Structure formats: structure tokens, C-alpha cells
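Help wanted!
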Amino acid sequence: MTDGPVIPDFGQATSCVRENRLFCPGWVSDNWGTVLQPALVQHVKLTLIAVAVGFVLAFAAALLAHRHGAFERPLAILSAVLYTIPAIALFQLLVPITGIGVLTVEVALVGYTLLILFRNVLEGLRATPPEVREAAHGMGLTRRQTLLRVELPLALPAIVAGLRVATVSTIALATIAAFVIPEGLGRPIFTALRDNFFKTEIIAAGTLAILLAVAADLLLVLLQRSITPWASARRTAT
Amino acid sequence: MRAAREAVDIVFDGATKRYPGRRAPAVDDLTFSIQAGEICCLVGPSGGGKTTAMKLVNRLVELTSGDVRIDGRSVRDLDPTELRRGIGYVIQQVGLFPHMTVGENVATVPRLLGWRRDEIRPRVDELLDLVDLPAVDYRSRYASQLSGGERQRVGLARALAADPPVMLMDEPFGALDPITRARLQKELLRIQGEVQKTIVFVTHDIDEAILIGDRIAILREGGRLVQVDTPERLLARPADEFVERFVGEDRGLKRLSLTTLAEVELDPPSDIVTPTAGAETTLRDALSLMLSEGSRSLLVLDADERPRGVLTFDRLSELLQ
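Answered by r_m:
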């Protein structure tokens, strides 16, 4: 895979591109299929994998901490420590272990989702009011039934809230994946920075990242509304 | 529809609960029995162990020693989960599942027991109608859309869903406003008239116990049983000073509230006596009326407003002797 032209091809470029004006819509439409769209698709993939893997790990950890309180502190500390390592430093640390590739990027991105997801899932599982838990126990639900039928459904709002933050922050963070691999919306930004600070490309890719984040957030809000109908039920008590 | 189950008796036999690290037991050598189909109120001050004693029945609290038998079978020999599914459980804070509709809440135990869908649905509707929440209006609502009184009605319907022979109720009306509480107390008695469960009813309110209970068990600090008796006998013959204080200085008036004018022997009617009262009036209210009207007698009317007889002040005081 080539790394794109180091210097923009001024020979064919419009005056807007040549003069590096703030934003050239012509460049965007000319380069949509070759530069921006592939970067966007890669970006979505990077994010989806990171959030999905992060969610599975955080969910398992939160279930463990919910069941056995002794695990909560070590797991919380571990996820917090991962969160505090600067992303670029983490890439550097990981390269010797996981090599220069998608794995390095994903390991780092997953690492950053763990703190928020772990906390939110655990908080969600604990959101069941004590009287609801007592009623469940008193009616003869087993622990497992209480978890599956009561605690998990009631944890959904907190879980989806965690997924929203994790997804949006991963979309933002995934732009610096371009430090390691030529993928994602970070790539056109890095290229443009190298190419004499080509504004149109920076703005186009940056805007796409923002729009992607907004769209993902909106989707998750809609998801939450559809799976938690009770949360939006209007109070009509007389 | 599944056949309604016969009520069963509950026997406390030296039932004791001690928590580790505490000197005084929470429930101390409790021995008494609750007859099939009766409401037995457990009352007493906080620290009297009444809720703990109730929870020994469905093993939310495990016995330290002694036994509790339901229909002759020791709760120790039953699987706790199975046991609880066979006992209705109602608590003060209700604990409705907020993410389930009213109908789904009521269906909880039948579902756990593996009833078929076509059995559950009519049962849910029947129960909602029983607690005076029309199924068509309420089935699909969430708990957040109900008032406090409606929530406890759903709680009651949920506890009755699988037609358990035994019900445990832990201060079920304690969080409601006085008007709603009075209404639900009456409703409970009406429903009990239809379902005839063996009910253990915990309350700290002696007036509620007098109104609701067929019998009342009074527990005091340290989980000791002081007296088990009908409301009438408890008020007439308190076993000791503790019970006397607990039932209150006005126990004579409370006794009067247990009886209505329809239940007492009256003098022959006379047209000149005023004031008048209906036969369904309690003796307590009749006395209050006489006092406020400055009269020593009262004309009792039947449902058709025809004179039924005369109640005199002297007759009232005879009744209390």
C-alpha cells in the first residue's frame, strides 16, 4: 500500500487547492472514493472492534465484581491505570509486543474503553433498588434468575450510557491509530499535516470523525429508547 | 384454571433466631400456631423481631434452633426456592419490577412455576380485577405510572398469582397515606373473604392489627412472645403490663370499635329517642355520637330506616365488663 503523495499534485489541482484555502468542496468530491470513504470505513471498523471487545471484557469483569465484591478494587484499579497511560506512549509500549499492526491499535483502543464500560456496567447492576431485590428473593427467583430477569434489564440504561461515552471517545481516539497503521480518518489528517498543512483534507476528515461520533451516539440513544420502554413511560398516576 | 388450594396451618415450635455476635436473640423460643385460613398479626415495638419471625417462614431468615412447620412439614426440609414460590410475599416498599408491566409483574411466579401462557393471561386479568384494578386499563402500565396505593394492589395481586396457601405481609400499608391505608385494609379483608389464605401480617400499628387480625401475637424486645389472642380477648384481658401499655389506655374504646350496633342486644324501640344511628355503626362511634349529642341513649335504625331498638349508655358499659 502506498502512503499517498508527499506533495499534492499541484499540476491538476484547482486554484482553491493550490492556494490552500480554508475548504475546497471540489477536492472532497474528487477524493471521496479514493481517500475519505475508505478511511471512514476503516475508522468504523476500528471503533466497532474496540468497543465490542472492550464491552465483552468489561462486562465479564463487572459480573465478576458484582458477584464477588473482592474483585472490584483490583479490576477498577487496573482499568483506571490503563486509562491514564497516554495513547501515544501506549502505542510505543505495545509495538515491541504486538508489532506494527491492527493488533497494537486495537489493544490500545480496547484498553481505553475498559474503565468507563466496567464502571457503568457495575453501577448498572447495582442500580436495582434493594426492595426490588428483596421482592425477587422472596418470590423465589434464584440468583441467576434475578441477574438475568431483573438486574441486567435494569442495568441497561447505565450500560448504554457507558457504551455511548466509550464509542464517542474511541472514535476520537482512533484517529491517532494512523501513528501505527495507515488506517482510519487519522490517515488523511496526518497526510495533510505533512503536505504543507492542507486545510481542506484536515477539515474534511475531522468533520467526518465528528459526524461519525454524533451518528453513533444518536444510534445508541435510539437503541436505548427501544430496549428500555419503561424508562420513557410517562407518569400518568392520578 | 388451576384448582384453588386449601389453606394450611403454620406452627412455630420453639423457633429461635440468634445472629452471631449479638447476645440477645432476635426471635426467642417462639411457640404458637396460626390456623389455616386466619390472619395472624405479629405486632410489637421495633426490635421485637416480628419481621424476623415472619421471614423464618419462607427462610429469608434461617432458624438457629427450633422449627417452623407449614401444613405439618418442616421448612428445614424444603428447598428454599421452591418454598418461597409457594408463599405469597408482600413488603412495605412493594418492590415491583420497574422494567416490567403490571401484567408481567403479576405473572412472575406463575412463569417461574412454568405455567402455560394461556393459563397465565386469564389468571393475571382475574387477579387485577380482584384487587380492583381493571385489567384492560392497568395490564400494560409500568410501576412508575401508578400511585402508591395502586402499586401495593399490584403487589398483592403478584403475591396471590400462583394461589399460594400462605401469604407473608410485612407492613404492607405502612407507607401509604391514612385514607389509602384504610381503603386497602378493607380491601384486604374483602379479598381474604374470597381467597381464605393463611396470612402472617406484620405491623407495628396495634389499631391495624385489631382491624385486620383474626388473632394477634404480641412480641416484645428480644423477640419474646407475650400473648397470642383474638383482638377482643387481647383488649379485654391483656396478659401483662407490657401488653396493657402496648394496646393503649383507650383499650376500652378499641374494644367498642370491634362490635357494631347490629351485633348487640338492644332495648325495645321508642320513637322519642334521639339521636339515631345505622345498625352498621360501631359501638365506639355510637358512644361518640351520644357524648357529642349529650344523650344517654340512641335509636338504632335498620337499613330501611326503621327503628330497630335503643342502645343505652348503661348497656354499653355492661358490654365492657
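OP: Thanks! One thing I noticed: Residues 50 and 109 of chain A are 6 Å apart (CA to CA).
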